[in-house]
Amino acid sequence: MNKHVTTSQAAPGSNWERPVMAPPPADNRSEADIDLWWALVDAVIAAAKTNGWTKAEVARRIGMADGTFSQWFSGKYAGRLDSTNRTVEQWVAALEDNAAVAATIPQSPPFMKMRGSSEILDTLMWAQLCPDLVMVTLGAGMGKTETCTFFERSRRHVYRATVSENTKTVHGMLTELAEELDVREHNPARLARAIGNKIRRAGDGTLLIVDEGQHLNDEAINQLRHFVDVYKCGVAIVGNAEVYTRFSKDRKKNRSYDQLKSRIGKRLQRTEPYAEDLVAYVKAWGIEDNDCAKFLIGIGKKGGAFRQIDKTMKLATMYANGSGTPVSLIHITEAWKNRDVEDMA
Predict the structure, then answer these.
(1) In this structure, what are the phi and psi dihedrals at residue 26, rounded to the nearest 5 degrees?
(2) What is the pTM for the complete model shown?
(3) Is residue 127 in a domain?
(4) What does the pLDDT look like over 245-271, one tens digit per residue?
(5) Do 282 and 249 reside in the same domain of the chain?
């Protein structure tokens, strides 16, 4: 792990001690309003501590000005207590409703070391130890991100940044990497060097994983190659096939192609999941019935692979729980039908 995770219930600097005094009775507040205020204060404290929210964050989530929330929480609010209570009460009720719905949604199986994920892990290991530039180009829903996340959490000096259409340029990508590396440099011209110095200080075994790498433009990919050449770190560009194939479309006009190809130490490419992995993933959902397994494996062979199975099983499990029966083929087929993604898969 490369990021500090707060384990205390409340975020640092938050004072969620229960107020000592209640708002005094007045013309604009009744005893019932004050009783409700006490109940809402306790509910807000519980929610804030559970989620690690500051008072400013709670005020933002409620949609209330910081000053108004602070006065309401401390019992010093001079305005109409009933209307302010109503605003907080609606927010607390929405939290409870969301929690109730979330509790009915089943959890996905934990990360599994299957044949496909093991190949990704081996490729990332190669990049980190050599160090080298590697490319992992897999189809959608085949576990790229989950496997990279597992690798990042299980090894030191591994930093994973995700790029998008909005961060596909050199500066956009460097900004994402700087955030992951905890590099603070506000001068764009010095950002690459600051990241390089952080890599150098980390020593051997640093690996930069750039997820959704198909979005990167040529200059950004060349910058990653520069990190490998100059700072001797590993780099893994992870994404769909476009991240590589676009460099070979017109080799005579694309000056980046030869440089890129000569720098790639290893490339992992697959467009479909292994059949044995689909079987293992279906079993991880607790499916033993042959007809159910066959249907789910068929879904997994469509575009989206494991993700299609995952989303279908979550919905099917909710249907089964609602009827008080185990998951059956009826629930699974109904879930797939109601997801209505057949023509998109």
Answers:
(1) -155, 180
(2) 0.72
(3) yes
(4) 665 555 555 555 666 667 788 999 999
(5) no
